[in-house]
Every structure is written in C-alpha cells, then in structure tokens.
Amino acid sequence: MSNHPEVHVHEHADAGGLGYGTQQSYLTGLGLAAALSAAALGLAAVGSIGTIQTTALILTAIAIARVYIHAVFFLRIRSTDEGGWTAITTIFTLITVVIAMVGSIWIMLHQEINMMPMPGTDAFRGM
Amino acid sequence: MSPDTPHLDPIFGRLTLDAIPFQEPILLGTFAVVVLLGIVVVGVVAYFNAWGYLWREWITSVDHKKIGIMYIILAIVMLVRGLADAVMMRLQQAMAFNGADGYLPAHHYDQIFTAHGTIMIFFVATPLIVGVMNFVVPLQIGARDVAFPFLNNIGFWLTTMAAMLVNLSLFVGEFSQAGWVGEPPLSGLADLPGVGVDYYLWALQISGVATIIGGINLLATIMRMRAPGMTFMRMSIFTWSSLCVNALIVLSFPFLTIAVSLLTLDRLIGTHFFTLDAGGNPMAYVNLVWVWGHPEVYILVLPALGLYSEFVATFCSKRLFGYNSMVVALVSICVIGFIVWVHHFFTMGSGASVNAFFGIATACVAIPTGVKVYNWLFTMYRGRIRFEVPMMWTISFMFVFLLGGLTGVLNSIPAADYVLHNGMMVVAHFHNVAIGAITFAMLAAIDYWFPKAFGFRLEPFWGKVAVWSWTIGFFVAWMPIYVAGFVGVTRRTRVFDDPSLQPLYIIAAIGTAIILVGVVAFLIQIYVSIVNRKALRDVTGDPWGGRTLEWSIASPAPDYNFAFTPVVHDVDAWADMKARGYKRPTEGFKAIHMPKNTATGIIASILVFIFAFAVIWYMWWVAAISFLLLLGVLIGHTFIYDRSFHIPEDVVTRTENERTRLLAQQG
Amino acid sequence: MASTAHTEVKGDNFHVTEEPHHEGHSTVIGFWIFLMQDMLLFCGLFAIFAWLGGHYANGPAPLDDGTGQPLFHLTPVAINTVIMMVSAFTCSMGMVNIRKENVGAALRFFGITALLGLGFLFMQYREAVNMAAVGATIQTSAFLASFFVIIFTHCLHVIAGLVWFVVLAVQINLHGLDDANERRAVCFSMFWNFLDITWVIVFVFVYLMGVLK
Lengths: 127, 667, 213
Prior knowledge:
The complex is a heterotrimer. Chain A is an all-alpha fold. Chain A has three helices and no strands.
C-alpha cells in the first residue's frame, strides 16, 4: 500500500462540464436535430418505406440518433464528468429502460396471444 | 368528481361521522390505547419541557445520525402495529374452524392482512434499512454529512406522514382490502368504492417519493463524499450494499410511482388503465408493480446481507473472506433482480417461453447468494468467534435464511408455482426470508451500532433472549404454514372448512406468541440498558473491536463525526489504522463547516399529509389550498441561501479534549 | 477555510486537515440522478402505452377519430417539435452567457426559452381541446388514457420549468450570479434539455408511429 495519502478533494471545484457547451456545438446540434426531425416527420407523413415494421425500425433509429445528438451536442455528457458518475448512472438507467420496455412488451405480446381477448382490445398495433 | 358520489358535501367531501368506526369494539379499544399513549408522550415531553429541544435537536435536524435514529424509531413503532395485525390474523385463523366464524368480520380481516403487508414492507423494513444506512454509511465512508441534508430530513418526514396516513385510516374511514400490492380490478373503484384503497395509494405514493429522495441523497453521498483514499474496492461491504441498494431504489421506485399514480387516476377521474372495460388491462398494473416489486425485495435484503458481512468480519476479528467475490455477488444480484419480476405472476399465462426465462433467471439468484453464504462461512472458519448478540443473530440468520432461500428456488419453477401460487407455501417462503434476513439483521444492527448512537451498549442478556425467542418462534410459527402450503391452503383465508388443519394453525399461533416474547425482550433490553447506562457506557468508542471508520471516533458520535477527515489506505480502514499504530490527534482542531437545520421538511410534509387526506376524502378546497401552500413553502425554501454554519474551533477542541480525557482515564 | 494555522497533514498520514467538500459539490450529480429517475417515470408511462396504446375500445384511434378524420394531426406536432428543439438551443445559449457571466443576455435567452415553453403549452392545450371536441378525452379508452397521461406528464414538466425560470430570474436579480445561482442555472438547463429529449421520444413513438399506415 502506498504511504502517501491520495488526497483529491478539490477535484470538482468548478460546476463541471455538464451543461457547458459552446455556441458552435449548440448550432451544430440544432442543425443535426432539425435534419433528423424533418426526416422522421417526412417519413411518417409520406407513409411507409416497405413494411410498417421497417418504417418503425427506421423511426426508432432516428429517435436514438436524435437523443444521442442531444446528449453530445447540448448536454455535453462526457465520460469524465463528475468522476464518471453521470456516464455510469446513465448506462444503468438505459439498461433498466431496455429491460423494462423489452420485458413488458414481450410479456404483453404473449399475454395477448394466450389469454382470452378482453373487451376493447379490438386492435393491436405492432409497436 | 368521482362517478359514484352524487351527494358530495362541498366542505367535507365524502367525510361524514359514519366514517368513524364506533361499532367496532376492537378499533375503539385500539383508539383508546393510542390516545392514552399519545397523552403519556405529550405529558412526558411537557413535564420535561422538551418541546424546544425536540424541535431544535430532532425535528428540524439535518444530522444524518439523528435522522437515521428517527427512521428506526418510526420503524419500531410501526413494527408494533404490524405485529399486532399479525397476532390478530393468527388468532383468527387458529379459531375459525368447525363452523366457528372467528372474531374478525371479513371486511376487517381483509384490512388487517393488507395493512400488515403494507406496513411491514413500507413502514417497517424500508425505514429500518434507510435508517441504518443513513446512520452508518456517512460514518463508514469518513464523511461529516450527507450530500443533501435537507432532502434527507424531508424524506424522513414524508415517510412518517405516509405512515400516519395508514394509522389514521384505522380510526377515520377504512384501509384497503385489496392486499399489499393492491392489484386491480379488486382495487378499482367498481369493487372497492370506499376510501380504503385511496389511503393505501396515497400512503404508498408519499412513501415512494420519500424513498426516491432518500435514495438520490445516499447515492450522491457514496459517490462524492468518500474520504480521501477510499477507492471502490476499499469501501466496506455494507457501504457497497448501500450503493447497490440506493441504485436499485432510484432505478425501480419510479415504476411504483407510475403504477400507483395511474391506479389513482382510475379511481379519481375515471380513466381506464386497469379497468375491465374500455380497453383497460389489470395485468398492466401487475406487470408494472412487479417491475418495481422484485427489485424492492432486493432493496430490503441486500443491506441485510451487507450487515451480516460486517458482523461476521468484526466478531471473528478477521478480514472478510472473498471481498471481491462479495462485491461481484452484490452487483450481480442487483442486475438479476431486474429480470425476474414475472415470477410473481407466472399464472397470468404468458406462456412457456416467458415463464421459462423468468423462472431460470430467478433460480440464478441462488448462485451469487450462495457465494455470499460460503464467504461468511469461510470467514468464520478458524476465526476466533465472539458470541456477542449481533453475531448470534448472524448465525441464527444463516440457518433461517438458507431454508428461505431454498424454498425460494423451489417456488421459482413455473410448473411448481402453478400449484403453489397464492398459497401458504409462498407466504411461508417470503416470511422466512424477510424475518431471517431483514428483521434479524436490523435487530442485530440496532444492537451493534447502539453504542455509536447513544454512548452505551445494550444489555446482552435480554438481547440473547430476543435471539432465541425469535429463532425458535420463527420455526414454530412458520413450519406449520409450510405444511399448510404443501397441502394446498390458499393465503388470506379467513375461515376454514377442513378441521384437520386446525392443529397447524394453533401451532403457528403459539409460534407467534414466542416471537412476541422476542419483541418484548427487545423492548425490555432497551429499557434495562437505559436504566443501566452508566455501567454499559462505552468510553473507547470501539466496543466490539470494529474494523471500519465509525469505530475510530467517540461514542456517541459527535455532531461533526470526524474532527479531521480520515485518509484511507485499506479495506477495513480502522483495523488497518490500529494495526499500524495509529495515534489519535489531540490538538490543532479547526472550525467545521456543517449544514443548518431547517423546518421546511416537517412543514412541507404536514402539508403533503393534509393534501393527501383531502384528496382521499374529496375535499377539493382543502386539497387546493394545501397544494398551493406546499408549493409556496418549497419555493420559499429555495430563497434561503444561508444554509450552513461553522462549529467553532473551541467547541470542537472541547469535545475532542473530553474524549482525550476519558480515554486517558481508561488507561 | 476559517483557520489556517494547521494546513499540513499532521505527523501521520491518516488525516487531512482541510475542509474536504465545498458547498454544492454534489448538486449536479444529484440532479442528474433525479433526471435519470424521471426518465424511468417516463419509461413506465411508455411501457403502459406500449401495452394499452392499441386498445381503442371502438373509440377514436390515431388515424380515425370516429368521423373518418385522423385524430393525430402532424402539423401542430411538428410545430411543437420545432418549438422544443429551438427552446433547447436558446436555453443552452443562456448557459453560454451564464458561463461568460453575462447575466442580462443569459436571462434574455432563458426568457425566450420560457416563452417558447408557453407556446408549447398553448399548442398542447389546443390539441387536447380539439380532441375533446370529437369525444377523445382521457376517460374514453385505455389508448387515450395512456396517450394523455404521457402528454400531461410532459406538460407538467414544462410548467415546472416555467415556474423554475421565474424563480431563478428573481433569485439572480436578488443575489446576482453567485455559485448557488450558477448551479441552479446549470440544473435548469439540464432539466430543459431533458424535456426536449423526452419530447423527441413522444414525437417519434407516440405520434409518428401512431400514424404509420
């Protein structure tokens, strides 16, 4: 063991990188976000490319790209912020989101297949 | 607003005199006892003229130690309530055979089992765990405080107000009759139009929000306030388990908030999330509630496992065996805990593939848990075990918990679950785990850290009586229930047709009485210790030969915890310091920066309580006013910029010199 | 801190004598964790929408409100998307000025953000009124309940953001841009950016996927 105390107390004296971007990064982010949103909107307005599932997949990809752009250009999340904790908490939250969403949809699909239809469940959209 | 209340009083909403249960002698008797106790408490406080002291030193306090202690007191009070419910159920079930109807009418019995579950999970286990974490974690990481002291205070008061809401439902109106997770459609407006479910929902909502607040606070504390040198792999296992648990809290409680909010909307404004008509689906609630509910199980159990790790290492005077594997086991339990929730509703009928996945994932939990058990055993192996009370709890836990874990694996098999679901086998299993892990751990933790909180140890004799009574009582009370489960008795049954079951339930009632002896012994232990506090005084601050930082400071811990922030070089920092001939600094103390007390927490919480009560009873004007006031108080709080003060240098010096003197006296 | 008499580590290396934490050291990470749990709140709502979003109960559906007209109109939704996007930009520009300690410009940018937020709320209000006109309310069906609860929750967040802006503006006027207020501004901008991200998800998964044919 080292005999020198590892003192790193004032490592975060400033408010951190989170939320501090530059005008340049914001403009880039705005441009990219606008382009992606327009693409998504156009896709839905025009109708579908191929099957409804393909279109939904493309839309999902656009949404993920849009969120990613926002996180990078606007929120400026970096893996080094706050001693890496913002990145770690975000990753764990995203894992939970994926587990809860995928799990719920999977469970629900099987339930709707296996159970007697209930009143009002007249249509089911493949989301 | 609500569809079925045509004649709503504009002032009192649906609250009338009928809401007060005059016709129920049991409730009236309870009410009388509560009022009497209340008068006694108020009288004692008034006699010692302690109002100012209570207000300054406890109610408005942001000291994590005091908040932790208050959480534990709340939990013990609610434990008595929850236990009374348990005793009443056991009596009813022991009596209601051969055509006898027992002494509890159905609607009352249903409220009791619902209240018992709700209270034990939300207002006993959770506050105990949050309380112990609050008290211990900052001390173990060498911090003087938590990251958000005000949030800590308001979190405690919100929990208390939620508990008060449950207690109030005893005397004004009724409590839910829909079981502790309140599953629709039974908990919908169509089946239970009364206020019971609303009390339940608001109590859960408030305590859920309070738990999230507390979780964020402790998470940020562990992330950002560890002492210099305390890297991840130098944190104590209890701190590790607290980190995991608070992450689980933040990750899972939002789902409870959503489930409860949507059910509230269903009942309040007539939406169709979980109704049987207009496309609603009750299973959507069940799914969402268990997305929260299973991680919640680990939220309750993991701190207990962390505590046992501390006790085993301390009372064997050894470093914990397999520290790294312990950490890996903790984290993997957290992750697996998120992918097992369907095992609570295998019988819904999601089919073989879904059930198989979640069943196998459930069984996998046994692997990291097994790692932990072996690590404890290997720590004890060739250790010099000191049979102090916390260690006795630990050994008792190992027997009880092993059994509970094995029956859990049994339950995890979907095919078996189709037979066992909603039966007494399941009830026996989760009580087995909850009592063995959580209750034992918390009682042991109270014993263990009592000197750090109050400066004197607890009298061991009555502690040992409590250990033996709980352990024996547990087996006598729950083994018959396992048997009942295997012969197919369903849970929540009020009267029985089959007289051959009666002996089982009589034995179970006897077991409950033995457990009751354990609880009384615990209370006597506290009383006797307070009386003998001079003889039991802990001068050294390290009565157990502890290994973690909290034992390096005085007992009771001073307000500022550490006169100097410690620097950590090893796991078991204090053991390392002692081994390397650490000398406590006796001079050069400086003023210490601390957070100021605040009254916002209690005021805001009382307003939340009033708001919830008003919404439950449809008193819309009260709800509106209290909500606006709440908003005002919270915004007003953000205008307080001066939130800290310094404990002056001479106060610190005086406190530390007193400790120097006491230590010298001891020689 | 207060006394400077003993600044070195004393004798051994088991202590530091300086104050280990400055005020507000955990605010940003704490608020970030709060936002993460907020994200999970929305995740719960989306899980419910995934489960119930197709249960129209013979009532209004995204492409047919009962009169043959679509229930979801993309034009106002597109306007709202632009509003949220631009407001995230102006909010971030506010932060650029906060960092330059250019308080007036910062507040102006935050003010534009809040005005855009008001516009967003107005558009949402209009949409709800139009839907109510064809009998599509939160009580109508499970689909509409799960749809409206997402929209309302998002709007509640926007309202909270507006209140926050007003309070922050008052506080910056009262105390100037001290450390505490700067932290609050950082959190405010994180919050507002989070709202935009949430809206992207609502926009794509609720509206756009709802009108796919």
